Amino acid sequence: MKITLDLETNEIVVPKNFFEKIDKENELITKHGGTAVKPVERIKKAFETAMSDTDKYLHTKK
Description:
The chain is mainly α. It is about 50% helix and about 10% strand. The chain contains 3 helices and 2 strands. The chain has helices spanning about 20-30, 40-50, 55; strands at about 5, 10-15. Strands 1-2 form a two-stranded antiparallel ribbon. β1 (about 5) and β2 form a beta hairpin. The longest helix is centred in the middle third of the chain and has 14 residues, at about 20-30. The chain is globular, with a radius of gyration of 14 Å. The two termini are about 20 Å apart. About 0% of the residues are buried.
């Protein structure tokens, strides 16, 4: 799932079905005994992962 970070407006734009998809994933997680993840935490974790190794995760759009 792709999200957009707009550096001019400091906005994060998510797909229309973002929260629905996270809810479905959280249902599976809790069904198997895990702890649900808040949607904003999911974005933060992905950003932290990407920033931790920009040589690997930072790409220029073609």
